[in-house]
Amino acid sequence: MLEILRTSKQPKAGPFVLFVRWGIPAIFTIFGIVLIVVAHGHLTGVQDNMAESNVFTSTLTDRDSVLSAVGVASIVIALMFLLLSWMLRLNADESGERADEDNARDYFRRTGHWPDEG
What we know:
Elements: H1 2-5, H2 15-38, H3 63-111
């Protein structure tokens, strides 16, 4: 009976929504992987001994290090985008459940029994 009271069904996602939800993170991920592969995963200035590394000295980085760092950052951005999209969809699902509960309460006020009690 709750299905009868449901006022809003979730519409199917259109091509724009699918592109924003899956295409943009895929583009960022592919871009990041390409940059890491082009730079051969090369990082300079990474020291194994903490005593030798000083964060206050400026070290010049080469092009491959910058490309690797941008590639990793691009993949992190894609993951953040996916997680944000997932959390927004969870919030939308919860608001639909709240609307169903409100409809059930209105039905109870009108009839004196819950919709699933028949």
